[in-house]
């Protein structure tokens, strides 16, 4: 049977009802939070299908945190080229190969370095975001704040000094090289302190005073700053961004699809690097560069507090994000209970692909509510041998925690604001035509899912009709 055509009008396909009717998000640009344990289908049922759903929206930029060895980029690159979408990967470790044609190079500090002349007022705020992505501020640890503020001040001096004198070197690697030479750093502080016109004169004076009167803490702060920048002291990341050929703003303005390719063996260490790029994309968009959707797979592995806290203003700037993680407990551990509550409050769509955490299952079961059920009992009396038949009305959960934990692999639970809970089927990348025929094999999963179209969605060239 031929799959039916569905004009999704730029909305994400969320799944299918148990009767195979498609389920779309109510309106374009709704942020979502997706919980899925290992093997739940985060790539197959969310990341890839989001790209396929929004491919026809040529003015919409898609930024994908491709954390598992470029598995998404491998599958969608030729498809994007086939349908005329601009596609690029940020791949400093050459995961996709040394001569990969879609590789682009950007400065990770682009949120500050690439500001226009009319955006100078935004510079201090952009630098602040850089500092907090390098040295994250954990929840409930106020007593050690001094030991984080000191290294941030060192980094702030470095970023602003490099930006003032040599913007090309204002990269993570350039900052690391600048701070790692004690003589260069001391000389720069003295020069900036003696220049009454220097925008970093006050910081330089403070650091010189600390070096003179509290040398022990000064040395500790410098070493802590260098520890935060250790990733950029050697190898490919040392020179990354110095030959940048495009900016984050240009990518958003021109509606690019961009994958941030992460070597899986370094996934837990490269969070700050990719956080810099994501913050630069977000900074460009919030200054009016265009529309974008952020697919944040494993967002708890990177210091993305800014993207968590700014969700309250996303819709005003035509931004939305898909926050993908293993469980709610991961989000609480990384960002705190209050921030997790804010995130859930502002995500109109909540999606559970697979449960592996008992607390999550109990929480969702309770939220889904209860239903009436009839209990029938048989009994006998002590005086007669007759059986007594009785019925009673009681209440039971719509879905018990046990049922959620044992949910079939093809099913999921959705909660959509204004609609409620839905128990439905997942949508897989091989069920969306015609793009399912253009996807390349997944290098990590060992092949390509056999196309099994359930619905036809629009494409940029209109070839689906």
Automatic annotation (TrEMBL):
**A GO CC annotation given for this chain:** plasma membrane
UniProt keyword terms in alphabetical order: Cell membrane, Membrane, Transmembrane, Transmembrane helix
Xref: InterPro entries: P-loop_NTPase, T4SS-coupling_protein, TraG-D_C
Q: Where is this region: Disordered?
A: 442-465
Gene3D superfamilies recorded for this chain?
A: P-loop containing nucleotide triphosphate hydrolases
- Where the record annotates domain TraD/TraG TraM recognition site, the positions are 293-408
| Cell compartment(s), UniProt | Cell membrane
Q: Indicate how the chain sits in the lipid bilayer.
A: Multi-pass membrane protein
Q: Is Transmembrane helix given among the entry's keywords? A: yes
**Is the keyword Cell membrane assigned to this protein?**
yes
PANTHER family assigned: CONJUGATIVE TRANSFER: DNA TRANSPORT
Name used for this protein in its record: Type IV secretory system conjugative DNA transfer family protein
- Give the classification, highest ranks: Bacteria, Pseudomonadati, Pseudomonadota, Alphaproteobacteria, Hyphomicrobiales
